[in-house]
Specification:
single chain; alpha+beta; 2 domains; 8-stranded antiparallel sheet; two-stranded parallel sheet; disordered N terminus
């Protein structure tokens, strides 16, 4: 009984940590049916759509107390977890970086590997963990998009989304 309690506690504590391919015990490549079975007991999960580059895709939005905390995007067959989109402040990396932290916080904890842009967003990629940190695009000056230099981004830009 004691071992079961320790394992349960470990899983509960670890569920708030963002890892390379996992958060909240949802892993890239896991069966969508397993994800749904485990999370519908804890959260409200709704199958909805997301529009990316002009196309609509199925996505499973996960709500806690009416707040969207993350979404699970299935693969093209709809069978496996392909991507996880984190919106809420509930989840952080092992070094304490999550939604609401700034570019400066990210630079202090991780080594910037690259930047990527998509759909008017800027994603920061780091060497230590394979996830993308989106910066709040509404706070990026229009003229920055002409040359898109990392060193010209202001350090106080907040992280608004994390994609695993």
């Amino acid at each position: 009984m004691k071992i079961l309690t320790i394992i349960t506690l470990f899983l509960f504590i670890n569920s708030g940590i963002i890892e390379n391919n996992c958060v909240d015990n949802v892993k890239i490549g896991m069966d969508i049916s397993d994800f749904l079975e485990s999370k519908r007991e804890i959260y409200k999960v709704k199958e909805e759509t997301i529009n990316l580059e002009g196309d609509d895709y199925a996505i499973f939005n996960v709500y806690e107390n009416s707040e969207l905390i993350y979404s699970v995007e299935p693969d093209e067959n709809g069978e496996k977890v392909w991507r996880i989109w984190l919106y809420g402040q509930k989840f952080k990396t092992e070094l304490g970086i999550g939604i609401g932290n700034t570019l400066a916080d990210l630079k202090n904890k991780y080594t910037i590997d690259d930047i990527s842009t998509a759909e008017g967003s800027v994603f920061i990629l780091v060497k230590e963990i394979e996830i993308g940190f989106e910066l709040d695009g509404s706070k990026i000056p229009r003229e920055w998009w002409n040359e898109m230099k990392l060193e010209e981004l202001k350090n106080d830009l907040p992280i608004s989304l994390i994609i695993i």
